[in-house]
Amino acid sequence: MARDRTAVSGASGFVARNLRALLASRGIPVTCISRGRVRLRRGEEAAASPSYSEADLLPALRRCGALVHLAGSGRAAPPRYSDSNAGLAARVARMCRRAGVRRIVYLSGLGASPRAATAYFASKYEAERAVALSGVQYTVFRPSFIMGRGDPLSRRLRGQMRRRAGRLAVPGSGEYEMQPIHVGDACEAIAAAAAGLRPGLANATVDLVGPDVVTYNELLSGVRHAGIDRIGLEEAYRAAVRDPAAEFGPDDLNILVGGFTGDFGRLRRLTGMGRFRGYGEALEAGGLS
Ligand SMILES: NC(=O)c1ccc[n+]([C@@H]2O[C@H](COP(=O)([O-])OP(=O)(O)OC[C@H]3O[C@@H](n4cnc5c(N)ncnc54)[C@H](OP(=O)(O)O)[C@@H]3O)[C@@H](O)[C@H]2O)c1
Predict the structure, then answer these.
(1) What one-character-per-residue DSSP string does 106-121 give?
(2) Mutate which of 8, 9, 14 for ligand 1 pocket (most atoms within 8 A of beta carbon)
């Protein structure tokens, strides 16, 4: 059976939309796995499944050589992380094995570790383990902030500027390190792993980070026409816990103040990619500079 298709789960999401555009530009046929309806491009087909059931997805996966698993949640809202990240990844990895999919590419998080002290990163680590132990060849990427049109961080910053008359809220000192990556570069790396052409990416866990380590303050200084409101870290956490509509959720804050950075040199070496865009271009891609 021909296995020329690449399945992309969470197909309506930010990274998925960008990845699907890249794969389409290369003539790679894509199977879009989503809980709902997805507007399809030429070369794409839909596999809709609200519950990611085997009955819905196994027939579609049998036609795919690779799955890029992008479905997941970064927000502490129902369903629980243990279901939407760890449980879902385990189910999808099992289905890939049964369907004979050759490779799984999974997007975890840069703070995932067996010692993770937050529910979000613990669920991402659990998901990584399920993928790695599935018996299917895998690449796990651990992304920093991925930036581009419609990315979650830029959306949050734009929301703050709307509510605060052009000003951004900075919790605590703002001296938290991060390593934003341009969505175009992130998708290039993901596509390389899905294609299976870089042996170093096989059965590897790789940080998905840009070339520049910057602080949150430095990043925000590049946002066009933005003023800064400093807010206490304690105040920000209190609001996050009390109010689901607060500017920062508990895990937005955990990820931010965690100051996670990664190994850019290894990403470059393993993907063989030449030029990566810096944080200024990532910010620009998010429409903020
Ligand atoms: N963007 C970043 O900066 C960043 C950083 C670190 C890690 N990541 C990880 O990378 C992956 C993709 O990120 P993204 O920014 O593209 O996220 P996104 O825009 O939120 O897309 C994720 C997609 O997953 C699906 N989904 C959401 N909740 C789900 C649930 N409970 N059960 C099943 N499917 C669900 C939805 O797709 P459908 O509606 O089509 O089903 C959603 O559009 C995620 O796993 C995220 O945690 C992203």
Answers:
(1) EE--TT--TT--SHHH
(2) 14
